[in-house]
Amino acid sequence: MRNSRFIISSAIALTTVLGIGTVSAADLAARPYTKAPVMAEVFNWTGFYIGGNIGGAFTTNTHLGITDPNNTLGLTGGLVPINYTSSASGVIGGVHAGYNWQAASPWLVGIEGDVSFSSLRPQASLAPFVSALPPANSFSNASLRVDELASIRGRFGYVQNQWLLYATGGAAWMSGRFSGDVGCPNTGVFGCGLNSHDPLSTRVNKFGWVVGAGAEYKIAHSGWILGAEYLYYQFNGNTASAPALDITTGAATGLCCAIYTTNDIGIHTVRARLSYEFGGPVVARY
Description:
Elements (H helix, E strand, L loop, with lengths): L1 H26 L12 E4 L3 E22 L10 E24 L4 E14 L2 E4 L12 E22 L2 E22 L11 E2 L2 E19 L5 E12 L2 E9 L5 E11 L2 E14 L3 E4 L1
Antiparallel strand pairs: 1-14, 2-3, 2-12, 2-13, 3-4, 4-6, 5-6, 6-7, 7-8, 7-9, 8-11, 9-10, 10-13, 11-12
């Protein structure tokens, strides 16, 4: 009997405890679920970058001229100056590297150097050229080959998160070749009287200046930067002389020379850019 009473008392107590526990758990208010705050990227453009670029280059109103001040071609009254105006276009592409520094403000300063290779070839020709007599087989041509362009430039820009708008300018260098020829074979009554020509081929290296502007876009969660840029290069003109050679034998005639000239050289370039930035910090904020 005692055991039965103990078992019944224990069962009643356990039921009471469980009942109270169930009610207490049910009465507890559910805790609201709160999502973790979303982190937004704050783009800082400070850092070193390298990249490549490709686009187009063109010139307008490039002047090429030839004169024969000492009448080496034997023309009556001397060679009338030959003047060309040439416009040309070509492909340009190369590499660039630089460093940007951005303070807490949206303003950015930086420095960049680049080297590009070009297919730009302003050129012109005239045959026959103008003289007091009609030289039937006379000819003339001149060309300026732009092989390489390089620059070292400062950059000043405005940053709007992933976007950068900037102006740029600095020193520039051009390497190429200045070529031409002017001649008058001896063709009898309508010939020039001398079977000679004045071929020119000389290397051209010039320093000048460059200005431009561009825009860049930094791709999220990566170091890649897309961009587009316009640059205008300006270089001083060039003057070179070439001695007269016999057209048939190639031997020097001992006569003086033709003078080849170009005016100031202006080159426009428009190019797309792809860069990779190293170590540019990205700060997370909530």
